[in-house]
Write a structure and sequence with these properties.
Mean pLDDT is 78; it is low at 1-17, 190-195 and 201-213. Strands 2-1-3-4-5 form a five-stranded parallel sheet, with helices on both faces. It is an alpha/beta fold and 314 residues long. It has eleven helices and five strands. The longest helix is centred in the middle third of the chain and has 56 residues, at 132-187. Helix 1 (3-17) runs parallel beside helix 6, helix 8 packs across helix 10 (258-274) and helix 9 (241-253) packs across helix 11. The protein has helices at residues 3-17, 37-45, 59-68, 85-94, 109-119, 132-187, 194-199, 219-235, 241-253, 258-274, 282-313, and strands spanning 25-29, 52-56, 73-77, 101-105, 123-126.
Length: 314
């Protein structure tokens, strides 16, 4: 077997192993001189490839077919005066067609191939330098490209839907937690606990202290908590122990109750979830829950210390 025959045999074997469907449906667009037609017809004549060929002799006929039909590949025979492959390729791609598209031509490839690639062609082939086997190889590679594009699009859409569902679930969870807090507050009206008793001593804090809910919390305090949540999501608690104690001290100084601290947490986390765009929200919510638990421990300790100091003064 000579080198040329061996090379074409390898190309044929690679094509057979490639992603081409068992029964190819091809569209050939050619003008009066039928540039490249015999190479495409030779491909169809090889019955082992199971190809079926349809022919369009004008650009308008090609576009009309593509509106209603789907092909495994499109071949265009470039004829400068009769059928401009660059213009037709641009029109095909502008219509949304992503099918493998190969152009057969007699032009100087140094300039013509670049124009075709810019237009969206998968391969620009000089008919004087290709065989049927080479044509099949290029068709196989073009089919692989299209399959990868479609798989990537499906994956991206699946990822988008997953993240959208995750964000919706995170928002539902935060809304449920907020509803539980509101119901709990109503159930405990008139009662007092450790934090409520301690707050009697801070009820006369200057204006801006939290006494009527989340909207009355100082904006600086809320922003500071938001920064702490973002840092905690990335770094965890190991490097933020001091910051968490300092925040608890600020909450105690501002007279923020456990209920108000939790409402602040839910509000801040929900805003961060909405701002995450295409990133996962589940990790943010779960890490935020760990953070508020630690903050609550520091908050209780802070109010316990304040209550103990008041008792000593009495």
């Amino acid at each position: 077997m000579n080198p040329t025959t061996a090379h074409e045999s390898n190309l044929s074997d690679a094509a057979v192993r490639g992603p081409l469907p068992p029964r190819l449906r091809l569209l050939l667009v050619c003008g009066p001189r039928r540039v490249g037609a015999w190479q495409v017809e030779s491909l169809v004549a090889d019955r082992t490839r199971g190809a079926v060929l349809e022919v369009a002799t004008e650009a308008s006929a090609c576009l009309a077919r593509l509106r209603d039909e789907v092909f495994d590949a499109i071949f265009i025979g470039h004829e400068p005066d009769e059928l401009d492959a660059v213009e037709l390729t641009e029109a095909i791609r502008a219509s949304g067609c992503e099918d493998p598209l190969l152009v057969l031509h007699h032009e100087d490839p140094t300039t013509f191939a670049a124009a075709l690639c810019d237009a969206g062609v998968d391969a620009a082939l000089d008919v004087a330098a290709i065989s049927t086997e080479v044509l099949v190889w290029h068709l196989t590679r073009a089919s692989e490209r299209v399959q990868l594009i479609r798989e990537n699009r499906r994956h991206a859409e699946s990822q988008r839907q997953r993240l959208e569902l995750e964000h919706d679930e995170a928002n539902r969870l935060l809304d449920q937690q907020r509803t539980i807090l509101v119901d709990l507050e109503r159930a405990l009206v008139g009662s007092s606990d450790l934090l409520g008793a301690a707050q009697d001593d801070t009820a006369r804090q200057p204006s801006g202290a939290a006494s009527n809910g989340l909207n009355n919390l100082p904006a600086e305090l809320v922003d500071h908590y938001g920064e702490l949540v973002r840092a905690y999501v990335v770094m965890g608690s190991g490097n933020l122990a001091t910051e968490m104690r300092q925040l608890a001290e600020l909450l105690v100084a501002a007279g923020v109750s456990s209920h108000e601290a939790m409402m602040m947490h839910l509000d801040v986390v929900q805003r961060l979830v909405r701002g995450r765009g295409s990133r996962s929200a589940r990790h943010l919510v779960s890490r935020g829950e760990l953070l508020i638990l630690e903050i609550m421990v520091h908050l209780v300790e802070g109010y316990r210390s304040r209550l103990a100091s008041r008792d000593e003064r009495l």
